[in-house]
Write a structure and sequence with these properties.
The complex is a heterodimer of chains A (250) and B (327). With 250 residues, chain A is α/β, with parallel strands linked by helices. Chain A is built from six helices and 13 strands. Chain A has one domain: Rossmann fold. In chain A, a hairpin with a 2-residue loop joins β8 and β9. The longest helix of chain A has 15 residues. Chain A is globular, with a radius of gyration of 21 Å. The longest helix of chain B is centred in the N-terminal third of the chain and has 15 residues. With 327 residues, chain B is an alpha/beta fold. Chain B is 27% helix and 28% strand. In chain B, the strands form four sheets. In chain B, strands 7-11-6-1-4-5-12 form a seven-stranded parallel β-sheet, with helices on both faces. In chain B, strands 15-14-16-17-18 form a five-stranded parallel β-sheet. Chain B has a three-stranded antiparallel β-sheet with strand order 8-9-10, with no helix packed on it. The interface between A and B is large, with 80 and 96 residues.
Chain lengths: 250, 327
């Protein structure tokens, strides 16, 4: 069984982002980039499927400019078997990514398409659901546990607002990962070396016969309103007094 | 503009987040509310929806076994069918786990984008949404030919007053025509839902949250006592959830619940940006932490550098008793 994992290159989660002065976006120059943490979790899960004998091949796919190759190399160093780079300089939003993924899935015929539940840059939380809809596959979003059944099915525990919910999906299916699904491994040096020999195939949206037509425009990006600096209080009594007589919240 | 709001209810009572979605939609014009589920509870929720807001002109009720649970496959098809019938200019839901699961799937089926987690409606097609865990705000314009799909962040849209006028008419949607190969390929197996007497985290007036410094599940009782004294809900940082002190649905942050109560008390939480993303719109923030240098104090209105195991019991003792249900 083949597992396809979509990964996105984003500003590293530990970087404090800076909004550009011209309001066109956030500063990307000389900023540490990494694989989106939720995508790492998705890839880790796929690797565990393979290690458990459930999956035979793990393929990572990423889309965008040439820098995506770095992220794919990271995926290969973590243990993916091969990689696909869908190369384009057009800004991609979730619907376009979902269409490209559908086309890649049509070529690759995976039984499971794994994605992170959201990317920590645009926080959209859409791509997995969209591609599941386009492929007409069932979906389990926000997964915190995945078990394989014996009837070509998976059982997925998912994190929902009220607690946890369990679904059973027939394969092929789309699964998006939440934080607590697993803890991704680090790439070891030997694996980083090995990754250099693995294949990254390149495709274009044209080759995939996907037309990217943006129906969404970013007008401006600004800093959120700053909270005014508060005060330190010296004691619980002072805190209670402030909450009662200054903030009037108790 | 005419908007379809996808409603959510629990045992026949509309969720607070749905009322927020209606409030957001009312800024766009005429509102239809879709209420789906299976059995008598749906009709009860529909009756409530009919009087939930003066902008609501119609309630669509769907009593269908397939949408008894929040399975995305039948729900997305249902949205599609409702959209085909009503030709709405906007389709909108709260960015709850339900809305986030269903809306993008339905939108993709109609070749539409989604504007997610909207915090401000600028005009019919221009919206503000947070990106980078709320560290930047992006103003976006939908340029497609419609319908415009969106999810809204409930804390940014206070629920309006229930309408005192004539209730909106309730129409039943026939699901007989819905066919999709995806329906039936997913099955709801079960759920593990936390029941609490406390107000809902997302809409509580007061939230008391704990972090890793609480050290154990047992110690969270201290925060429960504090929350009960204030009539509030209890939340947690990711670290506290990952450590197994509390269940996942209590997590406040970028990937957990977004809260904006009148009073947020962060206890033993250092204040990672991912946590701040979930609570920094609270009106008043109190932080109690032993480490006077931790980042939570930079967003707190009142900071107390103290051992929580001394400060919290003292606070419980000295607070006026406001044991009440949050309005």
């Amino acid at each position: 069984m083949k597992v396809l994992v979509a990964v996105k290159r984003v500003i590293d989660y530990a970087v404090k982002i800076r909004v550009k002065a011209d309001k066109t976006g956030v500063e990307m120059n000389n900023v540490k980039m990494s694989m989106n943490p939720f995508c790492e979790i998705a890839l880790e899960e796929a690797l565990r499927f393979r290690e458990a004998g459930k999956a035979s091949e793990v393929v990572v796919v990423s889309m965008g400019g040439p820098q995506c190759v770095e992220t794919l190399r990271t995926g290969l160093a973590m243990g993916a078997d091969r990689a696909i780079h869908v190369s384009t300089e057009i800004p991609l939003y979730p619907l376009a990514v979902a269409k490209l993924l559908r086309a890649v899935a049509a070529n690759e015929q995976p039984q499971i398409l794994l994605l992170g539940k959201q990317a920590i840059d645009d926080d959209a939380n859409q791509t997995g659901q969209m591609v599941a809809g386009l492929l007409k596959w069932p979906q389990a979003t926000f997964a915190s546990k995945v078990y394989f059944g014996d009837k070509n099915d998976v059982t997925v525990e998912r994190e929902v607002d009220g607690g946890l919910e369990t679904l059973r999906l027939q394969l092929p299916a789309v699964i998006t990962t939440d934080l607590r699904l697993n803890e991704p491994r680090y790439a070891t040096l030997p694996n980083i070396m090995k990754a250099k020999k693995k294949t990254i195939s390149k495709l274009t949206p044209e080759e995939l016969k996907v037309e990217i037509k943006p129906d969404f425009k970013i007008l401006e990006v600004v800093d959120p309103p700053k909270r005014k600096g508060g005060v330190m209080v010296g004691s619980v009594d002072e805190l209670v007094d402030k909450l009662k007589n200054e903030a009037h919240v108790i | 503009a005419s908007t379809l709001v996808v409603g959510e209810h629990e045992e026949g009572v509309l969720k607070a987040s749905t009322l927020s979605a209606v409030a957001a939609a009312s800024a766009l014009g005429d509102v239809s509310v879709l209420v789906g589920g299976f059995g008598p509870s749906v009709h009860k929720a529909a009756t409530q929806a009919a009087s939930a807001h003066s902008a609501i002109s119609q309630v669509l009720v769907v009593d269908w076994e397939k949408v008894k649970h929040e399975l995305a496959e039948p729900w997305a098809e249902l949205l599609l069918m409702a959209q085909e019938k009503g030709k709405y200019s906007h389709v909108l839901a709260a960015s709850s786990s339900f809305g986030k699961n269903i809306v993008p799937r339905a939108a993709a089926l109609l070749d539409q984008t989604v504007v997610s987690d909207v915090i401000k409606v600028v005009d019919e097609h221009t919206f503000v949404r947070p990106v980078y865990a709320g560290n930047a705000l992006s103003t976006v314009k939908y340029t497609g030919s419609g319908p415009c799909f969106m999810t809204i962040r409930p804390t940014a849209f206070p629920a309006g007053q229930a309408s005192a006028g004539t209730p909106a008419p309730i129409a039943t949607l026939d699901t007989g025509t819905i066919k999709s190969e995806a329906i039936g390929r997913s099955e709801w197996v079960g759920q593990h839902v936390q029941r609490s007497e406390r107000p809902e985290l997302g809409s509580a007036r007061v939230v008391v949250s704990g972090g890793r410094a609480l050290k154990s599940a047992e110690n969270f009782k201290l925060l429960e006592t504090l929350a009960d004294k204030l009539g509030g809900a209890v939340g947690a940082s990711r670290a506290a959830v990952d450590a197994g002190f509390v269940p996942n649905d209590m997590q406040v942050g970028q990937t957990g619940k977004i809260v904006a109560p009148d009073l947020y008390i962060a206890v033993g939480i250092s204040g990672a940006i991912q946590h701040l993303a979930g609570m920094k719109d609270s009106k008043v923030i109190v932080a109690i932490n032993k480490d006077a240098d931790c980042p939570i104090f930079q967003v707190a209105d009142y900071g107390l550098a103290a051992d929580l195991f001394q400060a919290v019991p003292e606070l419980i003792e000295k607070l006026p008793d406001k044991r009440q249900v949050s309005a």
